[in-house]
Design goal:
With about 290 residues, the chain is an all-alpha fold. It has one domain. About 75% of the residues lie in helices and about 0% in strands. The chain has 10 helices and no strands. The protein is globular, with a radius of gyration of 22 Å. The two termini are about 25 Å apart.
Length: about 290
């Protein structure tokens, strides 16, 4: 168990700039923008009356979770574009090289680090951002009469509700995009950092060949539709997105229930199976053909 923890710690240490320092800078910029808007903003919103503070905070925290999840998936894409070949280079020496671990175990832990290390870190940043958002609401309430923040107890309950549902949303999102992440990770095993362009070029070439094949044929493109469905993250929740933006949801849990009910569970299981197969094949390639 100590070796597993050490390997996960290595992944954190080598990529903390992307998942620890960069988010801290983003939140710092958010605070600067909010403070600047409160100090120098002079627009006094007009309307029929003050909006419901709890509704505004609920929508804000749901969007906050969605944004951090999206940023996390993008960050993981770039992480996996290099992760499976990173330990070939000299900057990964030190005592890590002396750990007699199998390639399957090493790559399996790299694959698991998304949910075991990196997304939990981003979840903490999302929780901190939620607090910043609430403080921003309080500041707006002091300056403009038409806006106000919910009382601290209500805000705490909404924050907890958003956090618990956010954990589920983040996990399901990472599992949904697991085959995409595994695809670029598998390419990195063979091609190193060239995996980023190849991750787009190869599917693009296949889609182009399919479309050329279907010219003058009355048939839907299977591969193109499958990739669009996977990359778009489409899980039948168009109405949920509209409800979030409009603020018509009376509970974050209700929004999560709609998301879970529309989630493509079969597609997720198939994607995870593909990811597991890629990790295994990548480990066999490293074990047989790559000298590290």
């Amino acid at each position: 168990m100590k070796s597993e923890i050490a390997l996960l710690k290595r992944e954190f240490l080598e990529h903390r700039a992307m998942f620890l320092y960069a988010p801290a800078i983003l939140i710092g910029l958010l605070i600067v923008i909010m403070v600047g808007g409160l100090l120098f903003g002079d627009a006094n919103p007009e309307g029929d009356g003050p909006p419901n503070g709890e509704t505004v905070m609920r929508v804000g925290l749901m969007i906050n979770i969605a944004v951090w999840t999206g940023l996390g998936v993008v960050a993981l894409f770039f992480y996996y574009a290099d992760a499976f070949s990173a330990d070939r280079r000299h900057n990964n020496m030190l005592f890590w090289k002396s750990m007699p671990q199998s390639d399957l175990k090493i790559l399996g832990l790299k694959a698991a680090s998304s949910l075991a290390v990196f997304m939990p870190i981003l979840f903490v940043w999302a929780a901190i951002t939620g607090i910043v958002i609430y403080l921003g609401f309080i500041g707006v309430g002091f300056k403009f009469d038409h806006h106000f923040a919910p009382n601290p107890l209500s805000a705490l309950l909404i924050w907890i509700e958003a956090g618990l549902s956010g954990i589920i949303f983040m996990v399901l999102s990472v599992l949904w995009y697991a085959p995409v992440l595994a695809w670029v990770a598998g390419l990195s095993t063979v091609f190193g950092r060239w995996s980023i362009p190849l991750a787009f070029i190869i599917p693009g070439f296949v889609v182009l060949m399919e479309r050329l094949y279907l010219i003058n044929r009355d048939a839907e493109p299977v591969i193109a539709n499958f990739l669009a469905h996977r990359l778009d993250g489409e899980t039948g929740t168009e109405s949920l997105e509209a409800d979030i933006v409009s603020g018509s949801l009376d509970s974050i849990w209700n929004g999560l229930a709609i998301y879970v009910q529309g989630y493509d569970w079969i597609g997720m299981v198939g994607g995870v199976a593909f990811a597991v197969a890629v990790v295994y094949l990548a480990s066999e390639y490293r074990r047989r053909l790559v000298i590290i």
